[in-house]
Amino acid sequence: MSISEANAGAKKFNTASTLKAEDRRERLTFLGLSMPAVLAILIVVFLPIFWLSSLSFYNAAGELSTENYARIFESALYRRTFVVTFQISIAVTVICILLGYPLCYLLTKVKDRTAAILMIFVLVPFWTSVLVRTYAWLVLLQRNGIINSSLMSLGIIEEPLQLAHNLTGSIIGMVHIMLPFLILPLYATMRNIDTDLVRAAVGLGSSPRGAFWRVFFPMSLPGLFAGIVLVFILSLGFFVTPALLGGGRVQMLAQRIESTITIYSNWGAASALGVVLLLLALVMIWLMNRVFGLDKLFMR
Amino acid sequence: MEQVGQRKIDGLWLTVVGIAVLFFLILPTLIVIPMSFSGASFLEFPPTSFSFRWYAAYFTSPEWMSATKTSLIAAVMTTAIATPLGSLCAYGLHCSAPRIRNIAQIFVIMPIVVPVILIAVGVFSLYAKLGLNYTLTGIVIAHTALALPFVIVTVMSGLQNYDFDQELAARSLGASRAYALWTITVPQVKFSIQTGAFLAFITSLDEVVISMLVSGGDNATITRRMFNSLRDQLDPTIAAISTCLIFVSISALVIISIFNRNQKNKDQL
């Protein structure tokens, strides 16, 4: 290569416009690297859901109508499904808060090493299949299961309680599945709270309880809120545990959608229910994004 | 003085409630393990006799074995596809403009937050048109989309802790973009990629709702068979299968935490 050729090359790379073009091409290449994954999610998640949503606007005769939505509000069966779904989701969320908050607070009080060991008790169930845990509860809660037999031998109850195949069983099982989803974001937030602030409040004359409620608790709220939203979204659309532990007596939204399709093949009605569930979930996700910031999921 | 007493009582309450919650979480998870070694022909706890009969029943049943094979192949293929696609996506998003990245981040975690029953029903109807229901390909495609967010999230958080100037330095010394990525960046975020791969594997192996609709026939997954079996009766064979699944999950968790510890030790050096 002669000197003049090299100079020409350098010139080519140094002009502002070529640099800019280079930069743009580079960014496009990066975006291109993301495309296969984005495409997979688009095809599996977004495309079918859009198609399903469009189905909800056609009636059985194949004409455009809002019949399917009208039926959701008119039919007592569907109304009941929504009421039950909300009742269960709210009950599960409240119980998770009552159980999860004290545990997380305890974890911030013990030594780091102890907390890490105790977290195994949270992570092992979190990573264990939902089906396995639901099965365990089916066995524990059955008529002659360990809970009934020990309560009876202690003389607390005379007759075995009906714990599985009903609302009680569904709620117990769901709380067990959902609890880690509340604990993980809440504990992550609590761990970053500067406990010197609480000590300072006590040093300045606050009672320990006052310091907790006025200093520590408000600072833990973002994590608590993230956990609540996560548990509530997942509960609204939950299928496996209520389907098995509810024993057919409890019909939540997800089960109603599934049975409307697999038993009645009524795609219009099922997709209208699906659209309502999706909208509920999206509102929750939006709320969570506003308060907690979904991008926080991407930090360590 | 009164305050100190109050504090002690509060602390005691906290400890009691906290420990009770920990037991509530762990005991039902592990209870199937002793049950799976029971010699009785019905489910009992605590078991009164010891045997491997339910493991024998599991490992000699052609239906359960075929379902296990389907699930394992699907999980391995999902991992093999989702890990490179997710890692590339994370790298691409990490390097792109913040505005695009923020939108894309919300987009890619949708498979986790959208109710899975909707994805299942949607995929089922799409596959009906494409003839993909009851095929391994169909299961793998759906599971890949479900596993991608886990890979993307873990690899992106790994990239955040990585000093990107190292790659720029390599390139200014003459390495091509791809070569710098492969020899400088990938080894340093290896831990995140491995963690993502394990998460993808477990996600596919434990997935129930999509498998329930989309898999079937010769290609039924183990979770589909377990779900259907549990709807009818409490078969103790499922305790043996559950124990195997718990073993896989815990192994994955242990391996991830060992990686994590090694990584932390390295960071400290």
Mean pLDDT of chain B, to the nearest integer, reads 88
Poorly predicted ranges of chain B (pLDDT <50, ≥5 residues)?
none
Q: Tell me the count of domains of chain B.
A: 2
- The N- to C-terminal Cα distance of chain A equals 49 Å
Largest sheet of chain A: none
Tell me the number of helical segments of chain B per DSSP (H or I, 4 or more residues long).
14
From the 3D structure, determine the CATH topology of the largest domain in chain B.
MetI-like fold
In the CATH scheme, the class of the largest domain in chain B would be: Mainly Alpha
Name the average pLDDT of chain A.
Answer: 85
Structure in words:
The complex is a heterodimer of chains A (300) and B (269). By secondary structure, chain A is mainly α. Chain A folds into 2 domains: 3-55, no CATH class; 76-298, Orthogonal Bundle (MetI-like fold), CATH 1.10.3720.10. Chain A has 13 helices and no strands. Chain A has helices at 3-14, 16-55, 67-74, 76-109, 112-127, 130-141, 146-153, 167-191, 195-203, 208-236, 240-245, 253-262, 267-291. In chain A, α2 (16-55) crosses α13 (267-291) and α8 (167-191) packs across α10 (208-236). Chain A is flat, with a radius of gyration of 27 Å. Chain A starts with a helix and ends in a 9-residue tail after the last helix. The model of chain A has no long low-confidence stretch (mean pLDDT 85). Chain B is an all-alpha fold and 269 residues long. Chain B has 2 domains: 2-30; 62-232, Orthogonal Bundle (MetI-like fold). Helix content of chain B is 81%, strand content 0%. Chain B is built from 14 helices and no strands. The mean pLDDT of chain B is 88.
